Structures are given as structure tokens and as C-alpha cells.
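::Amino acid chain::
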Amino acid sequence: MAYRWETPASIWQEDERTREFALLATDGLGPVDWQAHARARLPDLAHLLGASLPSVCECSPIYPEGFAHCPDCGSPLQRLSGAIPARQPGWWGPGADQLLPRHVPHGLPVTALALGDSIEERPAAPFAGRADRLMPAPPNAYAVFAAARYGFPEQRLLALAPGRGVLQYWDPLAQLWHVLAPEDGAASLAFTASDYAWLPREEGRRGEVALLPTAGGLQRLWINPISETYRLETAMDAPVLAAPGLMRRHIACLVGSPGHVFLWNARLDLSEPQQLSCPELPAAGWSRPFGYDGRLFWLHEAGQLVWRPGDAPGFLPWPPGWQPRLDFGGPTQSRDGRLWHIGHDGQGYSFLELGSAQPAHAAIDGARLGFANFLFRRGHPVVDEPWSAEHVEDLSQDDSLVVPLLRSFNNNRSQPSGLVLRLHKYTGRAEEALDGRVIPRVTVEWIGRRNVILDEIARLARPLDCVPLVYDGHLWLHHPDWNQMRGWRLDELA
């Protein structure tokens, strides 16, 4: 015989003989295979559910939510639901911060989190620091990361490898990555047509993660950390060709097949869907979308796609002979509010105005890497217009190349700040450094009110594969070639 206990969110069963509790069901997660998956991960699951753990007794390894004492021996229990830490902001990738003001392009590697306030308290350069924490890298590399609560009491980290469609879950108590298996009939998570982007569900129901692109359509992702599974709900059933973007409570993405391309759009609740024909558009190779001035932009080697909710999409080919340098970063702004992108016309580099049928040009004297007013020419920042001369503070940095990774937006600062890689003793072309060339010495730096060297890296290739993320009160950096992720403490976010 077994006793049944019901809490506001879960149903538990107590074995009459062993006095141990087992979870039968909990809101939002569907069937729970407790015996097969959960017993080896009880501490993590107790924190996720807000359940109670024993402190002195050994009657049961876990107790239902809200239990303050063991019902068998009366010993006090550790009530995790009453010890929830202060809520931390979610992280959905460098381009998914919806808290930025409208005058900052959304979808670029820019965050409104106050990262510099903590990092700049460290010793300034030339002192070289080291990572505060290390975390094993996810077993499937080239991943995008999300750190959020997903409707649970505590934040957890997910790593999705879109190339293989593998979803990985980090157990912070066991210090292990778990690969979540698809529930019966779940579609593949793979998406390789274009750059990846998903639309998060910050205040979703328990287990709800995001709306994400797949080769078969837009899918709503749900996770079940107890059974180590995930399931999908189809939101739009058509092959996705470019990642979705969000503008003024409208979702849009490219769908279809070569020769039959459409811009699909709908309201945020997926009502009023429509498809607008774009037959001559490329069917792959699009950048992650970004939003600015009420419009969504997708960039491609052949041109730019611009769409404003309520209007027809417009494709603007690049001027003849001009090729964008999409690997150099992303669009940046001039002081009059226009967006510009860097490219090369065969003779030299120049900036081209975005979103205009008759774009303006601005010639420059060398490559500039960055995005959203976070620009560098070689080792020096560009602090005025994108085409202005660099601001030289240290002549010794002439033989280095700065690769921006993440800008930290702070409206109180006149000079942008953020996370960068500095490639030392490099005087070659920027294109070669961003490709497969191995750089002997690279430093991870925070540039802002104070310049801080966070770490040093030996023999780094493909610097653009570095992925910054914020999780568990730390700023992390991941590269597919590393066995460990490096993290630096952010005191004010803890």
C-alpha cells in the first residue's frame, strides 16, 4: 500500500514499507519516470521543484514541497522552497536582450546587464587575471546557451547544438551535463540554414523554454529535467530558412524552399499569420535578425531584407562591386541615428548605409571590427563617428587587433564598454585572423572606465567562435576547442 500526498504543484507517493517518497506528477512536465531517471539527481531536482531534503534523518532522500518535518520521525527538513535566492535575470544569448532602449539596435551582441560595474573593480591592466571558476564544456560544441528559470524556482543552463539538434542540461550540483532525449514523436531541433536565434519565454509556464527555428518549422520547446526529456509543439509548419525576429509584438521569419521563399509573420500570440511572397530571395545564409527603428533586418552576402510590420518586405541588393564583411561584427550607428555596415569594394573598406534604397557611402582607411558603437581599428577604439580616426591612447597597441564580443549598454557612459579579445603581435589582415589562423597569444579583456585583463589564451583559432554568456552570477566564455568554460564573478548579480 502507498500513501498519496498532494501539494499545490505536485503529486507524491509515500511507500508504506520504506517510507520513501516518489514524485508521480508535477505541473507542466507531463509523465514523470521517477525510478529510471531521477534518483541519481535528487539534489538538483529538489532545488528545481522547491522540495525538501533531509538534514539529519534517513527516512527518505527527498520530501514533497513545503514539508518542514519528516512525517515518520519528526526530524526537521531543509525547505528549499523557502530558501530561493534572489532572482537573477535570464540570459538568452548576446542578441536576445529585450531590456535595451529603442535607440539601441536589438539583436546585436549588446546587453543591458550592469557587467562593468563589477568587472571594473578588479585590478586594472597590465595586471593579468585568471578565471574565478571553471565549468566543463558541453559535450556537443558549437552551442547556443540559455540561462533562465523556465517556470522553476531556480535558474538552470541549457546548451543547444543546432548543428546536430542536441539539447544539453547542466546539473550544477552534480557538475555534469545531461543530454535531454526527445519524447516520442518529437521533431528534430536541428537548424543549419542560417545563423541561429530563438525567441525566449521569460515568463512562460513550467518547463517552457523558447520559440525556436527548425528545419521543419517554428517549434515551442518544453523541457522535463526530471525525466531528462524535451517535447515540441508546432507553432508554424513550414521549413525555416532564416531565424525569427521580434518587432512590436510581431514575429517574422523566412520560410519555404529554394525558388519559393516567403516572409511568414504573425502576432506574438501566433494569431493573424500571413505569408508574403519573396520568390527571388536566397534560401540560406542569412544573418541573425536585428531590429531598429520599427523594422527588422536580415543581412546576406547578396543584400539586406528589410521588413516593417504591416508593410511588404523589401530586398535591397548591395551596390555593384561592394561586398559586406559580415564577420567583422554588425551594424553600427552614426550620431544622426542611421545604421551602417562595413564592406569592401575591391579598392578599400567603406561603410554603407542600411535600410535605404539609395544608400550613402563613407570611405575609411582600414578595417574596423565591432557593432553598435563598439568599434575598434586595430588595437584602438573608435569613439566618434564610425568613419572617424581611432582614439590612440597607447602606441604599443598598434600591433594588436581587438575583436569585440559583447557590448555592455550603460546610458550613463559616454564611451561604450564591453568584452573583447585582444590578438597580440598581429599585423596581418583582419579577415585572416577571423578565419583559421592560429594566434599565439590572446588576452580576454574588459574595456570600459578601467581596462581589465581577465585571462590569457595561448594559440587561439577562430576567435568569433567564442561565446559569452551570463549564468549563476558569472560572466562565462566558451569556445568549441576548449574543454572548460571560463567564468568571472559578477558580485552585484549574485
About this structure: Residues 82-86 have pLDDT under 50 and may be disordered.
